[in-house]
Design brief:
single chain, alpha/beta, UDP-N-acetylmuramoyl-L-alanine:D-glutamate ligase, globular
Length: about 325
């Protein structure tokens, strides 16, 4: 099948039900904080990124995930299908994954995940990859399964994108199978074992394309020997819970649609910024038309902003 006929994105990864409590600040070790509002939201890195591919990216999206046989599973399935994601569900005897999130008034968060059914993925569950252009993976499912998925996709001619979160050491065979690696600064340092500048850390990685998210600053990417910078969009943030996942899904969707890397980075930064203006994980992810409207009304290629970002990354 030709590359042009490969139009589907496949996400293989985690899905959780998020239990979110708002508080004045995230508690320090040993501290008890009196919270306020409480709500539950469908979440999990894999599921969030699948929703971002389908909703913010506007592309045909499938997801392979593992869920328990419980009411939490139905909530997650409904959220994904409502976003337009086609599901391949592995049913587990373990309970559906959950996450416990404290969200502070300054939009920071602290998250504890109970993986549950997410651990049921083994790595041999991929269905046909004939129409798949990109496989998007994360690290909230067993690393053996993630590695097996990446190897199978590479063999089938599918581009492999790995969001290496949560941070951990990566098997060499997994890294060798990755076309695009997406990390934040902490994850970049954990993978490389280097604590210098972003540019210095990127020199340690033998991956064709690496994208480093930098929070409100924006992002920095290296594709082969060339660097690209994209400054962030200014918004009034209320919840950053799914900002990184929105970035990942929107970026891969833009690449799937044929955007060059600089344009894909700009699109992903805009989608991520919009997600920060709303509560919840999947509930915060914007529609494609909202991202396009934001891009039309903002010019974020200001030379001054990019010069400051270049200096922060150690590129000047």
């Amino acid at each position: 099948m030709s590359a042009s006929a490969r139009s589907t994105l496949l996400v293989a990864g985690s899905a959780n039900l998020d239990f979110v409590v708002r508080a004045s600040h995230v508690p320090a070790p040993g501290e008890t904080v009196l919270g306020r509002e409480f709500a539950t939201f469908p979440g999990g890195k894999g599921a969030n990124q699948a929703v971002a591919c389908a909703r913010a990216g506007g592309v045909d999206t499938r997801m392979l995930l593992a869920l328990g046989d419980d009411p939490f599973a139905s909530t997650i399935e409904n959220s994904l299908t409502d976003a337009g994601v086609t599901l391949q569900v592995v049913r587990s005897a373990q309970p559906t994954g959950t996450a416990f999130i404290c969200l502070s008034d300054d939009a920071e968060n602290a998250i504890t995940v109970a993986p549950g059914a997410n651990g049921a993925l083994r790595g041999d569950e991929l269905s046909s990859l004939q129409d798949v252009s990109h496989l998007l993976l994360q690290l909230e499912t067993p690393i053996e399964a993630v590695t097996a998925f990446a190897l199978s996709a590479r063999e089938a001619g599918v581009r492999v994108v790995l969001n290496a979160a949560p941070a951990r050491a990566l098997p060499t065979e997994l890294l060798r199978s990755v076309d695009v690696l997406i990390v934040n600064e902490g994850e970049l340092a954990a993978i490389t074992g280097h604590h210098g500048s972003v540019a210095e850390c990127l020199e340690q990685l033998d991956v064709p394309c690496v994208v480093v998210t930098l929070g409100a600053r924006g992002c920095c990417a290296r594709q082969d020997a060339q660097f690209f910078l994209q400054s962030g969009f200014k918004v009034q943030a209320v919840d950053t819970t799914a900002a990184g996942d929105t970035f990942c899904g929107a970026l891969v969707a833009a690449l799937n649609l044929g955007d060059a890397l600089p344009a894909a980075l700009r699109y992903a930064c805009a989608a991520s910024a919009l997600a920060c203006t709303r509560l919840g994980a999947q509930s915060s992810i914007p529609q494609r038309i909202e991202v396009e409207t934001m891009l039309r009304s903002n010019d974020r290629h200001a030379p001054i902003a990019n010069r400051a970002l270049a200096a922060y990354c150690g590129l000047v």
